[in-house]
Structures are given as C-alpha cells and as structure tokens.
Write a structure and sequence with these properties.
The structure holds two protein chains of two kinds. By secondary structure, chain A is an alpha/beta fold. In chain A, about 40% of the residues lie in helices and about 25% in strands. Chain A contains ten helices and ten strands. In chain A, the strands form two sheets. A six-stranded mixed sheet of chain A has the order 6-7-8-3-9-10, sandwiched between helices. Chain A has a four-stranded antiparallel sheet with strand order 2-1-4-5, with helices on one face. In chain A, a hairpin with a 2-residue loop joins β4 and β5. In chain A, α5 packs across α6 and α8 crosses α10. Chain A is globular and about 55 Å long. In chain A, about 45% of the residues are buried. Chain B folds into two domains: about 45 residues, no CATH class; about 210 residues, MetI-like (MetI-like fold, Orthogonal Bundle). In chain B, α8 runs parallel beside α9. The radius of gyration of chain B is 25 Å and the shape is globular. Classes of the chains: A alpha/beta, B mainly alpha. The structure holds adenosine-5'-diphosphate and magnesium ion (MG). The site of adenosine-5'-diphosphate (ADP) has 10 residues of chain A, from α2.
Chain lengths: ~270, ~280
C-alpha cells in the first residue's frame, strides 16, 4: 500500500486541473442569474482520489458536470492532462447518484452501453471485458436481470461496472451511495475503496457523508454554498482506503471527523441565516 | 445470496418480487358471476315473464340470433367495413400522434405555440363534431375514418408527449458521457423511454376509435356493424341487436387484449400496467 501511494504522488503534473470555474444559471422565476459555482481552482493528480464534501445545493454536482463536459462553465476552464475540456470524452466516466440505468436493458446490456456508444463493440474481446466488469462488482449470475429486479445497491454495482468497463482514466462519482440503504452503503463504500486502490484510477468522489469523504479521500475538498466555493482542502494523510483506513488510523480519523463536523455545522448555520 | 467478487465475499438480498394474485381464482369468480347474471336474466324473461321478451329477449334467444349472425355473409362484410375503417383511422392516429407527440415533447417553443390549439381541440366534446364530419366527408368510409382519427389521436399524442417530456435527464447525461450522438440519444434513450407511454396511449386510442367508428355509422351511411345494429333496433329485432352488441364487446376485448400482448412483447420492462 505504501509503495502504491508513493507511486501515485510521484507524478507532478495534475491530471485534472480546474481554473477559475464559474457557473451561473438563469433563474426563470426571478429573471436573475444565480451563481452556482464561483471561481473554483482545483488540481487532481493522476491516481489520486479527491472527495468533495459539502451541504446539498452547494454546487457539487455542477462542478462534476463541468469536469465531465456535460455543463459548460460560464467562465474558467477545466483541463485534462493539459487539454481544455469541451465536452464528454472517453477519458472520463460518470457514476450517477440515481444510477441512470436503462430500464429496458438487462444488466449485461447496461454494462456494455458505454462500449456501444464509444463504438468499441467491434473489438473482439468486448464480451469478456463486460463479463469481467460484472464479475468485478460481484454481479455474476445477474447478467440477464433487469434493473427493476435489483436492489438499489445492486443497481449501483451495475453503474460502477458500466463506468469501469469503459476503462476511463478518470472516474467521476456523484454521491454514488446517496440513495443506497445504510448497511449496504458501508459495505459498498469499502468495496469502492478497494476497487479504486486496485485499479489506480483517478477519482473525483462527491459525497455529503463525512465518513465517506475521510475513508476514501487522499484529499478532501470542502465546498461552501451561496455562492459555491471551495472552503477548505484537507490532506487526510492516512494510508489505505475504506474499512482498512478506519481500523488502522482511529486517531486521525476521529480528529478529521470532528473537524469536518464543525466546519459543516458552521456552514449550515451560515446558510440558514 | 452469497457472492464472491474480486474484492471479497459479499451478501446480497435479492429483491422481493411482487406476489401475483392468483389468476385462476379470479377467472373462476368472473365465470360464476357471468353465469349467475345470465341465469337471472333467463329466469326473469323466459320463466317468470317479468319483462316482455320483445323488449329484452332471453339469453337463449340472443344466442340463437348470434348463431344466425355468424352465418350471414352481410354481417361479415359489415364487420370488415367497420374494422377496416378503424384500422386506417388508428394507423393515422398512431402515426400523427407519435410524431407530433415527440416533436412537442422535444421542443418547448413548439409546445408553447401549439398547446393552446391542442387544448381547445382536446377540450371540445369531439362527439359534437361528428355531424360536421359526415357533412364534410360524406356518408362513406372517409367520415368514419376521420372520426376514428379525431377520437384516437389525442391519447396517443398526449401520452407520447408526456413520455418524451419525462425522460430522465440523467439517462440522457449517461449517454452523453459515453459520447452518444444526438441520433443515438434519440434512438437509444428517448425512443425506448417513450415507447411504454405511447403504447398505453394506443390502448386507449383503440377503445375510443371503436366508439368513433360506431358513432359515425349511427349518424349516416349504410355500412358497418354500427349501422347493422341501428337497423336491427329500428326493425325492433332486439335479439339480433343484442347479438351485435355482444359482437362489439368481443371485438373490443380482442383488440385491447392484442395491445396488451404487444405491450408485454415490446416493453417487457414496463411492469407498471397503469390504466388502459
Ligand atoms: N440546470 C440548472 N438550472 C438552474 N439551476 C441549477 C441547475 N443545476 C443546478 N442548479 C442550481 O445550482 C445549485 C447547485 O446545484 P448542484 O450542483 O446540484 O448542488 P449539489 O450537487 O451540491 O447538491 C442549486 O441551487 C441548484 O438549484
Ligand atoms: Mg448533487
């Protein structure tokens, strides 16, 4: 684990680099603009997992959509490996909070969806790749099930497999466990931690769970709302991911949790004024 | 269920599937209710003579009339006339309804422009337009096809529009993330997401279209089972009239059943068998 992390930190140029990202939305009701994101600067190194924590409505999803190329920033830019983002690309895949599975497709056909859109079904081994991704997230045997036949946690496993099979360099996860029940949530959090560590992907993981932010993140970016800005960036400084991290580093974990609690509580108090 | 994955052993509880209420019990009950109803009817008319049989013939008389009907070639040509008009009117309603419904669902500008006219036409009791159709399109098939179309097009159009409007934005985003073209988004996301809505609309359209056809035949012309029914009633042949009504019930149920099968075939994921 130590050597792996050392390797990660070895690369110096950031893989994702956000510069002055500002997003304004027109509010139809008032005819004015609201500032969803204001002047966000953030660098994410190759192989790093950055968790984004913040109260609901502070612009986390908007930020991820900008990185994904789904939303154009009003000003500022995001660069991937030095190239400015102008739309979605095969270097990035997204895991959605509401799973975003196609209800008319089986698990297998949902997982292959990304490859299909990227016109990679002519690759001879695509079936094996899809099957491997399904096995990796623990859904072997459910290939021909429809999403409605699966629990929320299992549906998000499909969402994970669909993202992994496209072999992106960057995984963008928008509160992937937000709609999953509490017990499954912890199990899957640890599994996602292991998958990230195993595959060495660069990850932007959005959450409003303090525990998830600490247990998965190499760094934690805390957002504040009105307007959406970065309030604080914390390096967790703990090795390992998921439950491993919890067990081995009780002290640092509790310290971080306490700190983040007070930051978010202040933020919530300020927001409600 | 226990599964071993690359990341260790996990436990997964398969989702509870909805428990199906027994179909056979329901069928047996329905059959019994119908049998009891026929028995009371038979008793009231034929055995106790509570109702004069020239007003309401007994089920036995109706079934005799039904037997005569099905060997009468005029009946079959009338049925073919009615079903033919219905098929043409419905095909037009489905084509126009799906096309306009998708266009309206996709374009807010079009919705705002067309919505007032659509609402005006939708809120008009369309049956009131029937005499105008007869006047404008004559006594033949055209006026009937027009009425079928007018009654059937709205459920298809409105349901399709609702389907297109309610496509989850995150499904569209999921497609865009993997580089889907506009065409792919339309064909692989919007079309299948809209299909179950259109099919529900089509099912309603079939029932309404049948009403339109029969109504058109009542109002004018000399063809179709609606006209045959009117003529039988005019001649006070109540047994034949009821036999024809019975045929209409069969036709209606067969066509609705057919659409149900089509729905299950084309949209098996749509378990929510909402409405008709
Ligand atoms: N397409 C949009 N149009 C208008 N306002 C939007 C849109 N998307 C998001 N917003 C607004 O921007 C703010 C930030 O939203 P979001 O990024 O979804 O926050 P979060 O994910 O942190 O909960 C919210 O106030 C939301 O209402
Ligand atoms: Mg969000």
């Amino acid at each position: 684990m130590t050597t792996e992390t050392a390797q990660r930190r070895a690369s110096t140029a950031p893989l994702i680099s956000a510069r002055g990202v500002t997003v304004k939305f027109d509010v139809a009701r008032t005819g004015k603009q609201m500032i969803a994101l204001s002047n966000i600067d953030l660098d994410v190194m190759e192989g790093e997992c950055v968790t984004v924590l913040g109260p609901s409505g502070c612009g986390k999803t908007t930020f991820m959509n900008v990185v994904a190329g789904l939303v154009k920033p009003t000003s500022g830019s995001v660069f991937i490996d030095g190239d400015e983002v102008s739309g979605p690309g095969p270097d990035r895949a997204v895991v959605f909070q509401d799973y975003a599975l196609l209800p008319w497709r089986t698990v297998f056909d949902n997982v292959r969806f990304g490859l299909e859109m990227q016109k990679k079904l002519s690759d001879g081994d695509w079936r094996d790749r899809v099957q491997n991704a399904i096995d990796m997230v623990g859904l072997s045997g459910f290939e021909s099930s429809y999403p409605r036949e699966l629990s929320g946690g299992m549906q998000q496993r499909v969402g994970l497999a669909r993202a992994f099979v496209a072999e992106p360099r960057i995984l963008l996860m928008d509160e992937p466990l937000g709609a999953v029940d509490a017990l499954t949530r912890e199990v899957m959090r640890d599994e996602i931690g292991k998958l990230i560590a195993q595959t060495g992907k660069t990850v932007l993981f959005i959450t409003h769970s303090i525990e998830e932010a600490i247990l998965l993140g190499d760094r934690i970016v805390v957002f504040k709302s009105k307007p959406g800005e970065i309030k604080e960036i914390i390096t967790t400084g703990i090795e390992g991911m998921g439950s491993e991290r919890n067990a081995q580093n009780d002290e640092r974990f509790h310290e971080l949790r306490e700190h983040l609690w007070s930051v978010l509580a202040n933020e919530a108090a300020a927001a409600s004024k | 269920m226990t599964i071993s994955s690359a990341t260790g052993i996990i436990h997964i509880d398969p989702d509870r599937r909805p428990i199906k209420t027994s179909n056979t019990t329901w069928r047996i009950r329905l059959t019994l209710v119908i049998l009891a109803f026929l028995l009371i009817w038979q008793a009231a008319v034929a055995w106790f003579k509570l109702i004069p049989s020239n007003f309401l013939p007994a089920p036995t008389e109706v079934s005799v009339a039904f037997g005569e009907l099905v060997v009468n070639p005029n009946f079959w040509s009338a049925l073919a006339f009615s079903l033919g008009n219905m098929a043409v009117g419905l095909a037009m309603a489905i084509g126009v309804g799906v096309f306009v419904g998708i266009a309206l669902g996709l374009s807010p500008a079009l919705r705002i422009t067309v919505a007032p006219f659509l609402w005006l036409l939708y809120s008009t009791p369309k049956v009131a337009l029937a005499p105008i159709f007869i006047l404008a399109l004559g006594l033949g098939s055209a006026s009937k096809i027009g009425l079928v179309f007018l009654l059937a097009v709205f459920p298809v159009l409105l349901n399709t529009m609702e389907g297109t409007l309610t496509v989850s934005p995150s499904l569209v985003n999921a497609a865009r993330v993997y580089g889907a073209s506009r065409f792919s988004v339309g064909w692989k996301i919007i079309a299948p997401a809209t299909l179950p809505f259109s099919l529900v609309g089509i099912q309603r359209a079939v029932a309404l279209g049948f009403t339109g056809e029969i109504l058109g035949e009542f109002l004018g012309g000399a063809g179709g089972i609606g006209h045959m029914l009117e003529y039988a009633a005019y001649k006070f042949l109540m047994d034949e009239a009821l036999a024809i009504v019975f045929v209409m019930v069969i036709v209606s149920n067969l066509s609705l059943g057919l659409i149900s099968i089509v729905r299950r075939k084309l949209a098996p994921w749509d378990t929510d068998q909402k409405g008709m």
